[in-house]
Amino acid sequence: MTVTTYNTSIPVAQRYEQARVQVSLVWNSRDERSKNSEKLSLLQEFLWTNGGPRSNLHVIHSIWANFQTSTSNIIFGHKWRHIGGEADLWERFGGVDICLDPYSFGQANTLSFNSLLHKLIKYVPRGSTVVDLYSGAGVIGLAIAASRKCRSVRCVEINKMSKLSFEKSASRLPPNLGCTITWHNTDASAEPIHWLEGSSVAIVDPPRKGLHPSVINALQRVALSERKAFKAKSSLTKVKDEKRPWILRAREPAVHVDSTIMEESSGIWPETLIYISCGWDSFKKDCKSLISNEAWHLENAHAFNFFPGTDSIEVLAIFRRDSGIAQKKTKTKTKTKAKAKAKTKAKKKKAKPSKV
Ligand SMILES: C[S@@+](CC[C@H](N)C(=O)[O-])C[C@H]1O[C@@H](n2cnc3c(N)ncnc32)[C@H](O)[C@@H]1O
Q1: How many A from CA of 317 to the centre of ligand 1?
Q2: Which of 88, 117, 171, 248 is deepest in the core (most CB within 10 A)?
Q3: Which residue puts its alpha carbon closest to atom 7 of ligand 1?
Q4: Which domains does the chain have, with CATH numbers?
């Protein structure tokens, strides 16, 4: 179930009072024609009669059925049917309207997520080229595209169903943003270097288990490339020689908003890494790996209470790859200056005849 604000024109303070619920019924059968399906219809009727628009307590926005035959701990199966109420559910996140279908990831705590987004947006320099890895329906990418005059935003997501939500949300973006926005359906861990190249800002919002080792590795290599230019260049540019058709297909956008041709922006690598984490243990581990070898420098971190009453925290962390180097350079400069001063002092001392 998702508690929704469903009408994005309702002021934030009144949203939860007027909220409606999108109900997803997970049904242990192949589809609506299978055994037990009459019970699904009966349950749908009961819910709609008692919580739908004609009931005294109008709390239900819509009802969906999901068919799941697997006995694993994966909640949803691949088949969805919309069986009552409005099909589209809209939320307002980061200043843009977002369509959240039940088959795509959506944050439940609207207010806290909005606070996080407002903070996050400020860390993205205007005119950036952004890659939003683990983007879901593209909430973060679209909010940034609408507010930071970005040159491009690329969203990368493994769940192909999120494409529909992304398309609907993109259709409500203000016109003439001057930003090329694309959504790609692929595994972010398959070819992370390809996604990092051409992006001045990388955003990662992985599931609770954190970043895949290949993504960590790519982020480390990218950050160190400035200092080890020769070695890194040859291995980073290998990505251009890719021949495997499925990898090449994944690079093509499944959705392309804005008709402008994508600029060739090779040679640009992320200077800013924004990490949104819902798993404290995995975040600590990933953070350690990122800051080891001085690949990245942790500039700032903010915590948000997305799940009141639990011990879970949501972290927004900002890493930079320039400040560490800059700091090091300043330190080295200061050290060199201090050494030179000490040498001159010592020379002067030697030259002066000592008093008897
Ligand atoms: C915590 S959610 C974040 C979604 C989105 N950033 C948002 O705020 O709505 C993590 C997302 O990562 C996606 N995901 C999981 N593994 C992935 C992978 N290997 N490559 C790309 N996306 C992945 C999930 O499907 C899910 O949409």
Answers
A1: 17
A2: 117
A3: 136
A4: 2-87 (no CATH), 108-328 (3.40.50.150)
